[in-house]
Amino acid sequence: MRALLPSPRFDVSRELEVDVVDMTHDGRGVARVNGKAVFVAGALPGERVRMLVEVRKKHFDEGRTLDVLQASADRVQPKCPHFGRCGGCTLQHLQAESQIVVKQRVLQENLERIGHVQAERWLSPLTDQPWGYRRKARLGVKYVAKKGAALVGFRETNPRFLAELQRCEVLVPAVGERVGELAELVQSLDAREHIAQIEVAAGDAQTVLVFRHLQALSAADRDRLRAYGERSGLGILLQSGGVDSVQALWPEQIDLDFRIPAYDITLKFKPLDFVQVNAGMNQRMIALALQLLDPQPSDRILDLFCGLGNFTLPIARCAANVVGVEGDSGLVQRARENAVLNGLPTAEFFAADLTQDVRAEPWVKGGFNKLLLDPPRSGADAVIPQLPLDTVQRIVYVSCHPASLARDAGVLVRDYGFQLKAAGVMDMFPHTGHVESIALFER
């Protein structure tokens, strides 16, 4: 790992022996030296480590582990040889069973500290396969002229640098086992200095790569990319500008979809569309969300931030009526097409920016008795005050950021008379500090 440059106002880097007493939400150990917090990458609670201080600030220092002098019983050997340099995973040195415990503690602390609420009961954590799970990713690309080599991978722990990867253990194997190949492919291109990124998207039957290029590709480069697609079986697409510029190179027809077998649903999507990163966890998450929501044949249900209809269409199998609302008009169009594909006319979809004033939107006055929220990291605080919640008896909130969930939970309990009946974590991103969670609110 490259060292971060210390501020010139402080002393130069130095080594320390510290006892680690806690862990941050992003997976760093926490120690204290003369009362000052020290954050230590690669260290676990209960360990004594020798560390290098790399950044010194007024209220805390930061650094990384050099040697583990006394190891935690929860420490394991990271599977990935790039661990510690690549910033994609920060928890591979912690056994998977303990990772989810840490994430549940993060959620609990956020609910209590930010929302001033407590869950009446804790749901059993949801987990799935910890390796080869990532079906969506954006790989950075950089050609280093001095080395005469191309790099393909994720940002290092120091985000100024791109990690040089040969493989990735969390990407779907069709791509994860070929990261080194992709670097060689980029290096072989005439446009090697003008490839900005490679987007990965995997459906159930097909996996594709979208090459973002900053200048037009030569006929020779297009031939090289096409040949790689034919050889590897990966679909190859080109992106010269915005989302609408994506075009298939090989094969001519790209069809991405995934099944939700429990509800006999097929969702078609485009390579740059948002879908849940972890396919196995998505199946489990949908099942849990619907179990908590408990849709009945007489229910009218509102699904906000609905995307492609990931929750909306399974709900439509059970409820009288469900309305999905999403800010991305392209996703809304795909959701409507997916409703037709799956024979679900009771599912309606609307495009609306849920961070703006939506009180005049026709769907707001639909008389819903249940609500599902699946907002981005910023949460749902902008839309909650605009909803006619007096008719809503049950809310299921799926969150990708525990602080936002905690804030919104406090509002729902304090201002709208709901109770936080249950909460739990879901390991959507194993080996990372990312905390996905779910909560049930009832009158």
Helix and strand arrangement:
Blueprint: E1 14-23, E2 29-33, E3 36-41, E4 48-56, E5 60-70, H1 96-115, E6 121-122, E7 136-144, E8 149-153, H2 173-176, H3 179-187, E9 195-202, E10 207-213, H4 219-232, E11 235-239, E12 247-250, E13 256-260, E14 265-269, H5 279-293, E15 300-304, H6 312-316, E16 321-326, H7 329-341, E17 347-351, E18 370-373, E19 394-399, H8 402-416, E20 419-426, E21 436-442
Parallel strand pairs: 3-5, 6-20, 10-11, 15-16, 15-18, 16-17, 18-19
Antiparallel strand pairs: 1-2, 1-4, 2-3, 4-5, 7-8, 7-9, 9-10, 11-12, 13-14, 19-21, 20-21
Helix pairs in contact: 1-8
Rg over alpha carbons = 24 Å
SSE pattern: EEEEEHEEEHHEEHEEEEHEHEHEEEHEE
- Within the largest sheet, what's the order of strands? 6-20-21-19-18-15-16-17
% residues in beta strands:
25-35%
Mean pLDDT: 94
The dominant shape is globular
CATH architecture descriptor name of the largest domain: 3-Layer(aba) Sandwich
> What is the helix content?
10-25%
How many domain modules? 3
Classify the secondary structure makeup into a structural class. alpha/beta
Largest sheet: 8 strands, mixed
Oligomerization state of this entry?
A: single chain
> How many H/I helical runs?
8
Full CATH superfamily name of the largest domain: Vaccinia Virus protein VP39
Termini distance? 51 Å
The count of DSSP E runs of length 2 or more, i.e. the number of strands, is 21
What's the CATH topology label of the largest domain?
Rossmann fold
CATH class of the largest domain: Alpha Beta
